[in-house]
Amino acid sequence: MAKLLVEKSGPLVGTVKINGAKNSVLKLMAASLLAEEACVIESVPDLLDVEVMITLLESLGQVVNYDKTEETLEIRPSETLNCEAPYELLQKMRASFLVMGPLLAKKGIAKVSMPGGCAIGARPIDLHLKGFQALGAEVTLGHGYIEAKAENGLVGSEVYLDFPSVGATENIMMAATMAKGQTLIQNAAKEPEIIDLANFLNEMGANVKGAGTDTIRINGVTALKGSKHQTMPDRIITATYMVAAAMTNGDVTIENVVSSHVKPITAKLREMGVTVEDDDDRIRVMSTGGLKAVDITTLPYPGFPTDVQAPFMALLSISEGTSVITETVFENRFRHVAEINRMGANVKIEGHSAVIQGVKDIQGAQVKATDLRAGAALVLAGLIAEGVTEVDDIYHIDRGYPQIEKDLVSLGAKIRRIEENEK
Ligand SMILES: CC(=O)N[C@H]1[C@@H](OP(=O)(O)OP(=O)(O)OC[C@H]2O[C@@H](n3ccc(=O)[nH]c3=O)[C@H](O)[C@@H]2O)O[C@H](CO)[C@@H](O)[C@@H]1O
Ligand SMILES: C=C(OP(=O)(O)O)C(=O)O
Fold it and tell me: Which residues does UniProt mark as catalytic (predicted)?
């Protein structure tokens, strides 16, 4: 399998531009199922997850044309929409489950494989299903599939989410766009990707208000038209590169960002002693070392994002003092601890927390990306570790970072990708 060889590198210096967000584009692609006409999505990153979603849309009957050079995706509806999403695509990527809301809204029926657990937790889909049921769908489970039916169409209703789940908010919001009457989603997730999706739906003719707050109000419409939309910048990659700059005592300017989306990262870096200058769409991160320990608790937006927990742990592992990271969003998101400890870090797991005793140096080792962000964290650790770090299982990283090594190399990092058939 392909791997990354990361050598100890000097301070990262220069400018890097952020691509469109994986966690938005996958939902925009799912939403295109609702349209009667072609949709065009811009700033589409070249990612494994995007490939999986293209395959899924094609298997449902959509005609997809992805121009990688222009980063543009055109999705045309077919006359006959197939309403079944198979296990082989659901097991590759959980976001595939987001086709259920649009299929149910448009065709009144959807049969989607249950996604199953994954490396960071069990990740149930009960809240999605509760929402579909509240909108009048009859939901049945059997043979690993979930079937939802609303033969006479969905009907607007009130849905209270026990937890502000990103995926459930998005799936229910898409289902409700074509329900009869009004739907209220309460305790909705407030992530920026939800606003991006709501904007796209509204451009398609939907009537969605309140996205980005904890109450989203959707007035159903009878049909949605095609639209063109630019994907928002990836805030998790932005955060990853901010951490990379801080870790290497670098001076990095990150462009095409929405700086308000990474406020918790900016605040924590400043607390540690890093200089962060932020304009609306540009962030400069400078560090001269001597970084201090901080405590972090992951939370739904606008709290500290769970997706940045692993990269931040890499930074804290070489900062002065003891830091505590408490993970409240996923129950099993510390699998990177064993890997980072193999590099000489001193991290102990205590229940839902990781206690990090900062060390002076870490050393290169052969390590495995246990999930997407864990993989990015190990690459960052490799930049400051003595010797060479070999990061295996990088298909995880390729799910969400279209060009991590190219971006970091452009800033002075020493990283080489070894393809499967290379020695
Ligand atoms: C493709 C995508 O956008 N992925 C992001 C999305 O995942 P995803 O949408 O799966 O995350 P959720 O917000 O739904 O999950 C948060 C928590 O809620 C739980 N839960 C969720 C749904 C449900 O029906 N029942 C339930 O108990 C989950 O197990 C988890 O513990 O938001 C997460 C939280 O910011 C991010 O880490 C992921 O990168
Ligand atoms: C957990 C993530 O993605 P997914 O929800 O697709 O697994 C992530 O982007 O860090």
Answer: 118 (proton donor)
pLDDT tens per residue across span 357-412: 999 999 999 999 999 999 999 999 999 999 999 999 999 999 999 999 999 999 99
Supply 165's token pair: 């789940």
C-alpha–C-alpha distance, residues 5 and 414, integer Å: 8
ipTM over 0.90: yes
Q: What is the spatial distance between Cα 309 and Cα 306, in angstroms, rounded to a whole number?
A: 5
Ligand nearest to the CA of 172: 1
The verdict on pTM exceeding 0.90 is: yes
- Tell which one of 25, 26, 120 to mutate to probe ligand 2, the residue whose CB is within 8 A of the most ligand atoms: 120
Ligand 2 mean position to 185 CA, how many Å?
Answer: 23
Give the 3-state secondary structure of the chain: CCEEEEECCCCCEEEEECCECHHHHHHHHHHHHHECCCEEEECCCCCHHHHHHHHHHHHCCCEEEEECCCCEEEEECCCCCCCEECHHHHCCCHHHHHHHHHHHHHHCEEEEECCCCECCECCCCHHHHHHHHHCCCEEEEECCEEEEECCCCCECCEEECCCCCHHHHHHHHHHHCCCECEEEEECCCCCHHHHHHHHHHHHCCCEEECECECEEEEECCCCECCCEEECCECHHHHHHHHHHHHHCCCEEEEECCCHHHHHHHHHHHHHHCCEEEECCCEEEEECCCCCECCCEEECCCCCECHHHHHHHHHHHCCCECEEEEECCCCCCCCCHHHHHHHCCCEEEEECCEEEEECCCCCECCEEECCCHHHHHHHHHHHHHCECEEEEECCHHHHHHCCCHHHHHHHCCCEEEEECCCCC
Q: Model confidence over 165-205: pLDDT tens digits? A: 999 999 999 999 999 999 999 999 999 999 999 999 999 99
Q: Residue 279, annotated ligand binder?
A: no
Query: Which atom of ligand 2 lies nearest, measured to the CA of 95?
Result: 6
Establish whether 125 is an annotated binding residue. Answer: yes
